[in-house]
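Weekly puzzle thread! Below is a chain. First person to post its structure in token form gets bragging rights.
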Amino acid sequence: MDLIARGIARALALIFSLDAEVLRITLLSLQISGTATLVSVLLGISAGTALALNRFPGRRILVGLVNTSMGLPPVVVGLFVALMLWRSGPLGALDIIYTPAAMIAAQAILAFPIVTGITLAAIQQIPPGFRLQVLSLGATRLQMVWVLVKEARLPLMAAVMAGFGGAISEIGASIMVGGNIKGHTRVLTTAVVMETSRGNFDMAIALGIILFILAFSITLLLTFAQQRERRR
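Winning reply:
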């Protein structure tokens, strides 16, 4: 209990003193995870909607792959991205291994199937008759898709929250492709692991509390927006 109390006190001290290193780590965490979430949402909603509205050979296998990928082990994703971005790898010419860009790529890959799977389920639950009704009113297929996305906006906002949660809490892939370099790729999750390995449990608890506050604050804002839409 004393250790937890010291961790909470340390967290409050770091927050209210606006510690420069912690502020830099927090902002980098938000920048990387926010960008990864944006990429995964843009690609995931598009892919999920396309899977929900189209029928083609092998579709069920692809849907099963998406559902399986929602539980992808982060270390496997980290290994795959590291091999692709390694200097001798297929994308080595990009020279982004151990950079925030590599961490964004890894987190986006992890969040993408989560957003895709939730989007797929959300669009599929809209009755097919509704689509036909929209088309019968003279809407183009693109306009029909936009109407469906608007109709499913509440679960799609849940997809955004799930994607962000998966990105901001990721640790294995971030270390593998980012390297946890101070002032460059160190984020809250990797900093917690580092402090724990050093035995600085009070600092690890403090950083963990800050990570929770950050994730909770962003998710709460998205929840308010979601529930406001629900009342309309």
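Puzzle host: Confirmed. Bonus trivia for everyone else. The CA atoms of residues 58 and 64 lie 10 Å apart.
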